[in-house]
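Action item from last week, closing it out:
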Amino acid sequence: MTNSSNDDRVGRRGGAARTSPYTAYAAMALEGRGWRQMFPALPTEKGARHGLAEIFRGHAVRNPAWGDRYLQVADDIQSEAADQVILGGGVYRIVRIEQTVVMTEYGPESPKPTDREFPAELDDRRRRAEG
């Protein structure tokens, strides 16, 4: 006897099922009418906080008039005193990202030619290092 709900969950009834979520972390910025992920997801909240704090520290160097405020925000993010900050008209937030494995009737789905890496030009950590 089979368990039909289990069959559906693992994709045996035609089509893929998404299973095995795990949590990763990143930072996002509110831009216009939507949110933009600032760098690729990282395995730890601490890593995401460090990434966003480093971006703000880079802003402090490039914008001396706001330098002290950027440094304070970087410290608040890194020390976990804040998950979201509003600064200079921008809204920035540490976020949780649920990642999944796509399961088919043949097992976990392999990479596809259409899969894309996080675009380097959108990685704000890289911009800070280059700027």
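Closing note: Residues 1-13 have pLDDT under 50 and may be disordered.
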